Amino acid sequence: MLRIHFTGVDLARVRMAGRPDALWETILSFHRLRDRRDARLFGEWRTETRSRLNSETRMLGMLIPSRGYFPDFLTPVEGQYGWDVGLDSLRGIRPERMRREVALLGASARLGAAFGMPSAASGGTDTTLPRRLREFMDGGTEQLPRLLGELRAYHRAAVEPYWTHIQAQIEAERAARGRALLDGGADELLASLPTMLRWRAPVLECDYPVDRDVRLRGRGLLLQPSFFCRRTAVTLHDPELPPVLVYPAAAQLVSAPTGAESMHPVVEDQRVRTLGKLVGHTRSVVLRAIGDGATTTELARRAGVSLASASQHACVMREAGLVTTLRHGNAVLHTVTPLGAALLRGGAVAS
Questions:
Q1: Phi and psi of 136, rounded to 5°?
Q2: Are 128 and 54 in contact (CB under 8 A)?
Q3: Could you give the 3-state DSSP secondary structure of residue 330?
Q4: Rounded distance, CA 83 to CA 86, Å?
Q5: ∠ at Cα 49 (48, 52), nearest 5°?
Q6: Closest by CA position to 71, among listed 31, 36, 39, 98
C-alpha cells in the first residue's frame, strides 16, 4: 500500500500535468512491451513496435527490469516540458547520483524486491552487484551516450508513431479531472481519480507492491496521467525529489477502438473514409462546441441541436479520430483530439 500524506498547503498545490511526459511514457512502454497482458489494448502495438525495433535495447533491459524498482534518473522532472528537455536533463545526471541509483537497482535485484524497496547501497562500486550493472557503474557517465542512443531509438519505434493518440488520451483525462476540480476543488479532484487510488482525506491511498508512506510536507503533488501506465500508479523512490504520481489515464473510449489498435493502418483507412462524412456546417459547429470538453447534453445545448443529433455527430467524429469520448460519472465527456484541433485551425500545427 502506498500512502501519500497531504497538508492543507499540499491540497492547494495539487496540479495536473499539462501534457504527457515522453520519458515516463517511453520507460513504462518498455514494461508493456514485455508484458503479455492487455492484448486488446496493446497487442497490435507490440507487434508493430517489435517489427520496427532494429537496434540494441540491452542497456534499457538492464536498467528497467520487468517489475520492481528502476532508477529515478530515467524520468527527470524536466521531462514534463518535452522529450528534448527531458533528455538534456538526463544527459547532465551527476555521476554520484547515477552510481547510487544503480546500486539500489542491484540491491533490489538481489533481494527480489518490488518497486520502492527502501534498502539501498550507497555510493561506490558494490562488488556484489550483477556483473553488467557493476560494469555500468564503473563506466559512470561515459555510459550515457549509449544509454541515450538506445532510449532515442526505442522511443522512435515504440512511442513516437503513437504520440498523437497518446496526447488525445491525456487531453481527455485532463478534461475529466479539470471538471472535478471545478465542481469540488482539490478534494473532488483526488476523489475522482481511477479506482486503484482512494482519497481518504488527508491521505491518498494506492494499491502498491510494497508498504510505503510519502509525506508531501507542503511541496504539493504533480498528477501525471499516463497511457502506458497500467494497474497501479508509480512514484519516484527518492523522497527528496519533487513529488509526482504517475497513474493510468482513465480514458476508456466508448464505441471506438482503444489503445494502439486505433493506430493500426486498417483503422486509419476507416478514418479516411469517415472524414468524407464530416463536410457540412452543422458538424463544424458541433466540433467547435465541444471546446475544452462537453457532455452530450452540453454539446446539444451549445450547438443548438437535439440530444440524438449531438450523439450521432459525436459518434461520427469519434470514428474519424477527431473526438475522444470517455465516461465521466454517469455521463460521457467528449474532447477534441489533436487532429480535430488541427482541423479547426485550418490545418495549422499547434506549437
A1: -65, -45
A2: no
A3: coil
A4: 5
A5: 90
A6: 98
Q: Name the residue among 64, 56, 52 with its Cα closest to residue 26.
A: 64
DSSP code at position 128: T
Q: How many Cα atoms are found within 13 Å in the side-chain-facing hemisphere of 3?
A: 9
pTM over 0.85: no
Q: How far is CA 4 from the centre of its chain?
A: 20
- In angstroms, rounded to a whole number, what is the distance separating the alpha carbons of residues 165 and 155? 15
Q: Which of 156-160, 242-246, 269-273, 280-284 has the weakest average pLDDT?
A: 269-273
For residue 112, the Cα-to-chain-centroid distance in whole angstroms is 26
Contact predicate 141/98, CB 8 Å? yes
Q: What is the pLDDT of residues 197-243, one digit of tens each?
A: 999 999 999 988 889 999 999 999 999 999 999 889 999 999 999 99
pLDDT at residue 250, as a whole number? 62
Q: Please name the helix (run of DSSP H) or strand (run of DSSP E) that holds residue 332, with its range, or none.
A: strand 331-336
Using DSSP's 3-state secondary structure scheme, residue 324 falls into strand
Q: What confidence tier does 328 reach under pLDDT thresholds 50, 70, 90?
A: low
Distance set, CA 75 to CA 7, 10, 78, 236 (Å):
26, 22, 8, 9
Q: What nine digits make up the cell of 11?
A: 491540497
d(CA 124, CA 137): 9
Residue with grid cell 533491459, as numbered in its chain: 61
Closest by Cα among 60, 55, 296, 293 to 157 = 55
The order of strands in the sheet holding 14-16 is: 14-16, 221-226, 244-248, 234-235
Pure H helices in the chain:
8-12, 22-33, 39-52, 58-63, 83-91, 95-111, 131-139, 144-158, 163-191, 265-275, 281-290, 296-303, 307-319, 338-344
pLDDT tens by residue, 248-278: 986 443 223 344 444 444 444 444 444 445 5
Q: Give the β-pairing of 14-16 and 221-226.
A: parallel
